[in-house]
């Protein structure tokens, strides 16, 4: 019998190849659920629901095993691990995808077998049909908070399914470009309000180097990014932002506006560490105390 | 003998024609010094140093006369008033200039005759040579604080003169695109630090809907924009931002980091009103109390 995880994430585990103005790296351990779970585990025990291929390196599994992450839902399937190759240029706000090999991701059929279901759930960026499959397996009334992510590809090709997902989650976390695409609204406040009408009562828009905007019913919270003068690799920034946000929420169990503002700020801080090095390299070097210290500095930077 | 003005602005007074997704307006009263002085006058008496042509409408002069603005340096020259025609599309962060008629601006030769010189000076966006001419006429040691603005055109064509200006001001206020162009640095923190090495000890980068970044020696202050769900016309946002910032500084006379953070926030608030209607229409409807009230709300929106 495994220890209870208050938080679960369903998403991808991947092997990435990344090129930025600061370097080029193959064989980088990545994937939305890997990034999310690694940093959420600074706050709470987290269950990782994902698949990998037979080529998945043991050393990557060890990285996750170091942390309070429940790996009993990380299944190894026949074939190769999902692989993504991307490049960042210019202001590094947007990756250019060079190659995507779905591999075992094509056979991903998430099945949740928990003795006690997690109270907090994050549906990372995957096929909206899989997100719906997960939602079918959880009792909504036992869940305190469900958030989901998505991407431009699903907005363009699978909008109908996405709308079904939106109706069943508390919060949609997406970036500014996706919010504009989804709503055809250039003003982000209006875009956030339009999204709230699609279902999620909370909307969290990530703006990369420009910070984040959080719509909580009629309330709005806006904050800049933590200033980082050398962004080495933005990969995983959004997933670790979500991981810090949801991890902090699961730890505190408090979804009041006041506490959620702190959760958004914590997500910002976690993401600010992520981008300082390739893959998980930067966050692997820190502790919860480093997050708290930078959060305190962030509070000084923003207050007037 | 006119009353003392603690603050002076040298810049343009213009007649604009503006097109945005929300409408089209000819004969809009504008110009950097007009916008700046109008809103700075919410905080302190301000001297406006500029030229207009013989066609300058009396009703526009009346708008300035309503406020504690010293117009004794607003000279009427032979010819027509400087006219600008611009258009905003998409996310409205950047104007597309359709026409510029310099007219009397070509004969602008600022001469400062003050019984007692202002302690705070803003060199709005004009030919860097004129900015230097103004600096030659003031005794730097009698000035508490000098800030200047500029634009991409001067960066591209008159960089040498601009560098002379930068060495003689306390603060450069510019937008993100200009900061990147000036430094060839995409990261804004690095760009701000690079600008500080050119002379100004303070650098204030305006990011439109994304807020502002303020470098104060080794300190950094970052804040989002006040959320506005309908930006009718961004013209004058930058000039009124500067007007709120410098007006608040001149009122308080305090250039400590703590007070300057508040001045930046006040600039943000003033700009947030400006964009809600065409030209000066929105700020003409408000009082200092409205600014203070929105500033208080802004503090709630940003705090965590």
- The outline of chain A comes out as globular
Most residues in contact, chain pair and counts: A-B, 34 and 34 residues
Strand content of chain A: 15-25%
Gyration radius of chain A (Cα, Å) is 18 Å
| Number of continuous helical runs of chain A | 10
Low-confidence runs of chain A: none
* Strands of chain A, total number: 14
* Structure class of chain A: alpha/beta
Detailed description of the structure:
The structure is a homodimer of 304-residue chains. The first copy, chain A, has 304 residues and is α/β, with parallel strands linked by helices. Chain A has one domain: Ribokinase (UDP-N-acetylmuramoyl-L-alanine:D-glutamate ligase, 3-Layer(aba) Sandwich). In chain A, 35% of the residues lie in helices and 23% in strands. The first copy, chain A, has 10 helices and 14 strands. In chain A, the strands form 2 sheets. In chain A, strands 1, 4, 5, 6, 9, 10, 11, 12, 13 and 14 form a 10-stranded mixed β-sheet that branches. The first copy, chain A, has a 4-stranded mixed β-sheet with strand order 3-2-7-8. In chain A, a hairpin with a 2-residue loop joins strand 2 (14-20) and strand 3 (23-30). In chain A, helix 6 crosses helix 7 (188-196) and helix 8 (237-252) packs antiparallel against helix 9. The longest helix of chain A is centred in the C-terminal third of the chain and has 18 residues, at 257-274. The radius of gyration of chain A is 18 Å and the shape is globular. The mean pLDDT of chain A is 95. The A-B interface holds A 90-92, 186-190, 193, 207, 209-211, 213, 220-225, 227-231, 261-262, 264-265, 299, 301-304 and B 90-92, 186-190, 193, 207, 209-211, 213, 220-225, 227-231, 261-262, 264-265, 299, 301-304.
